[in-house]
UniProtKB/TrEMBL annotation, chain B:
It holds the Pfam family BPD_transp_1. This is Sugar ABC transporter permease. It is a multi-pass membrane protein. Keywords: Cell membrane, Membrane, Transmembrane, Transmembrane helix, Transport. One of its GO terms (biological process) is transmembrane transport. Its main location: membrane. It is found in: Cell membrane. Residues 78-289 form the ABC transmembrane type-1 domain. The keyword Translocase does not apply. The lineage of its organism: Bacteria, Bacillati, Chloroflexota, Caldilineae, Caldilineales. One of its GO terms (cellular component) is plasma membrane.
Amino acid sequence: MTRVTSEEKTVVRAGVSRRSFLRSTAAVAGLALAASACVPAGPEGAGDMAAPSEEPVNIQIWWRLRPTIEGAIQVFEETHPHITVSLGDLGEAVYGTPKYVTAVAAGKGPDVSYQNRHTFRQFASRNLYRPIEDLLERDNLDKGNFMAGPIADLTWQGTLYGLPHTAGTRYFFWNRTHFEEAGLDPDVGPETWDDIMEMAPQLNKMEGDRIVRYGFLPHFPPGLSDQLLIYAMENGGFSQSEDGRTNLINTAPWVEALEWCVNMIDEFGGGHAAASSFMEGFAGQPVDPFAQGQVSMCSYGNWMIGRYAKFPDLDYDGTGLMPVSAANEGAQVNWSCGWTFVIDPNTELVEQGWEFMKWVISEDYVRAAGTVGLELEKEEWARQQLPGEPIFAPTPPVYQPAMQFMLDEYYSVLPERQKLMMERYLDSETFSVGCGQIAGLAAAELWIGFKNAWESALTKKQTPQEALDASHADVQKALDAAWENLESA
Amino acid sequence: MAAAQPKPRFTNAAREALTCYLFLLPWGLGFLAFVIGPVVASFVLGFMDYEIVTPARWVGLANYIELFTDDARFGMSMGNTLYYVLVFVPFHVIIATLLALLLNQKARGIAVYRTLFYVPSIVPIVAGAILWVWILQPEWGLINSTLRMVGIEGPLWLASLTWSKPALILMALWGSGAAMIIVLAGLQGVPQHLYEAAEIDGANRWQRFQHVTIPMLSPTLFFILVLSVIASFQVFTTAYVMTGGGPAESTLFYMLYLYRRAFVLLDMGYAASMAWILFVAVLALTLIQFKLASRWVYYEAEQS
């Protein structure tokens, strides 16, 4: 009887046949071996092996588990025979990372872990990550080879605490078909809030007095709790003072932004009850209302460029240049976030962990994950009987050589529209503010503050000013406590 | 003359006791390490500023003072929890009792009905929560679709400030099967001769229920009441999964707030003090229930 490994089970669960998983893994392994012989390593020293020891050393890595990762890890183990990897799931990582934090506090953390960047400074300041400046310097890994924003996010008091892996910004999408139907130019999306207010009613579709297609809903997508941030930034808002000690989310740009969202829903969304009822219908569903053609414009993220391609009836376009308020006209606005690898401050397997981190940011990883990912995409395409060739637009890496590889290997073969959208996304990374810098030392409280203010204002429990005042008070209290603890330590 | 038998070192009773304690030792050590230890630690942590990742600092009563004087969420989350307890517990006991009465009939296929009503209580709570998110969906969810068929526009349920708590209570009531089974067992323990005697005395159906069933069932109902109150004060999972405490913190129950302070905001000392306040509140309520029990709970053994 053939034994089915956990990796295979994971892949089968994801809807991929065992045969195709084996085929893709074999392909990845073959490619990786060939690549190790003829392709220069990504970052300096990535893939270099220490003197071989008798027994491979096992390192624990907590990641957000997906089939592509399992496949990539197999490649890592084959090209690094002195290291084996035990993968674990990171768990909740938006409102803090309780699993990682408690494990590190107990001295039982993983050797390497994935971490979200918006909470990064909060945890770096509490010594939850090992500083990596010494390793970076030793291996001549140049910070200049990474996107600047993520490196800034991961730097606390002049020291780098992690290697950024992926990045992503907010992204504004529109439905070209709906634009044409409404007599709007499908090649040009809204550039300002005034444009949105002008276009939204033209794109709304009514059945009697009921809206069945929304031109624009500010609280799209369902469940995304930090939408307030991008609207405030579009209106010139900053989340905190330059020294990171004063929270600013109850200042005029924030209040005006929240007022604008509430008014948009009241004026063009049929009011909160109707709009929420509509939006709740999509909560927890794999398909969102924009993909289904029930919303014409939406403020979402660049990672949807590839995902929306799976909907053959959806003719969409988008930009990373977010529409701004009249007060902020002409400004290039966006925020960027993503994932990062860190080393547990207590681990003794620093070298092995670091070796993995250098590999995972390199083009070797992009190739390994991309090969499995493309195979999965082909399976998905076939399963859904989608027309044409699979459109594969994997998450962009932060390390420039790996990014270049991704551009050459995957983005260059995208259809023209998606290729253009990816270029616009990459452009938006150059002017985006990193979420780590936005969130500062009270990130978890700030994200809760966004959610509370957003829901309180939209449900009319409080006015935007009252809601933001309340959230500001909570965040400021947490911020004061964080600085006080830091300075008294 | 036979040599005197050496006196055994332990008597039989002592040996028996020693064996007993030896068998109890593993459990006792586990209880000390994993129950008593954390309980004592949490009590001490309640007087400390402890962020999990930094050394704890003694702050005396500061956490308790802040809770009562400078934390609006403490009162709000306790208010949300009290609402849940006050609405859920009576409905829970009544529904469990009514279901048990219904399923105590000698009807064909009654075992199947009993199983059907019991099944929801063994559905994993997260799976049940996901299912109810769909049932409560305002546009096309089962409840609102049914209401729409009779001309009623249902509420937003989980997205509504007013209806979010009733929605979670409704879901919790769906799992009343476990209590129903306990009541059913209680009902089947009521001696038949009491009903016969009441019938001979001319008691009608309602009088038999009022004067025989309820008194005989009262210890069971009391048991369910006490457990339900304790469990309701600790409501967490459904709110965590279905609403995350929203909208606008209308389902931020006490335990959810405690979890947030401990594991999201890393304020473990503060969370420990919250846990002790809840413990004292639930203990006090339980003692009051026991005190009041003598007025309505009938124990046959005490009467004889």
